[in-house]
Amino acid sequence: MKNTVFTGCGVATVTPMRPDGSVNLKKYADFIDELIQKGADAIIVNGTTGESVTLSDEEQYNIICCAKDIINHRVPLIAGAGSNNTKHAAKLALNARNAGADAVLAVTPYYNKANRSGLIEHYNYITKWCQIPTIVYNVPSRTGVDISPEVYAVLADNPFICGVKEASGNIAKAERVLNLCGDKIDMYSGSDELTVPFLSIGAKGVISVAANIIPKEMQELCSLYSEGRILEAGRMQNSLVPLIDALFSDVNPVPVKEALNMLGKEFGPCRLPLGEMEESKKESLRKVLEHRGII
Description:
Layout: E1 8-12, H1 25-37, E2 42-45, H2 57-71, E3 77-80, H3 86-99, E4 103-107, H4 116-130, E5 134-138, H5 140-143, H6 149-155, E6 161-166, H7 171-181, E7 186-189, H8 195-200, E8 205-208, H9 215-226, H10 230-239, H11 241-247, H12 254-262, H13 279-291
Parallel strand pairs: 1-2, 1-8, 2-3, 3-4, 4-5, 5-6, 6-7, 7-8
Helix pairs in contact: 1-2, 2-3, 3-4, 6-7, 9-10, 11-13, 12-13
């Protein structure tokens, strides 16, 4: 059995930027410390929510170093290291290991639409070079590629592939993955709204966008379930529906970054090609935040 990277709520962190679009590492360090103090079980940097595809390799490296210093071994640090260029993905993963990450999150290669053998070799190549615990990130709505349970079963034999962030939204598929892979691979929900359903089939936790705004609540949601307080967890999951819907009313991370700005965090704009939210969506987001007493 492989070691579990984390259980509970991992926060897929937003990257704070100055008005000119440069990364604000000081604000990032303060934010990560705040998330840990509020209960985050793991910190994920350079992911989709962190706008990784618009960050240079140097920026990604500096972000990992910043996070490593402020975390100081309190919780696991997981660094995004994805690319549709296999050699570049391997370089990013090696950089992450050298910067002190505890694990990497490697998204499926997008645009190329890799076939079965290509997917398997892509991940084998990455882990050969970085030799660090690796969580496969499957998000077909963004990449155009959906990893099948049968491919997961092959990847699960790789000693460095220890988990999967499944963001397909397909519970039945996730069940088949766990059935085929057993304890060779850990499952994490990649969708906030499916946290409890995923936990109910054996997932270890969630890699959460909403936890940027409500870290205590998302951690509590996972804790309630792990303590066997299933009905309470289910009720809490249902109560979060309006907020989660508002945080995904536009392309992630546009709404969650806007929400942090509404909270006075001054996280700046998203980098192009992500633009601002429509005013009507902003107003709806603000009303949900106000209704929950967040602002």
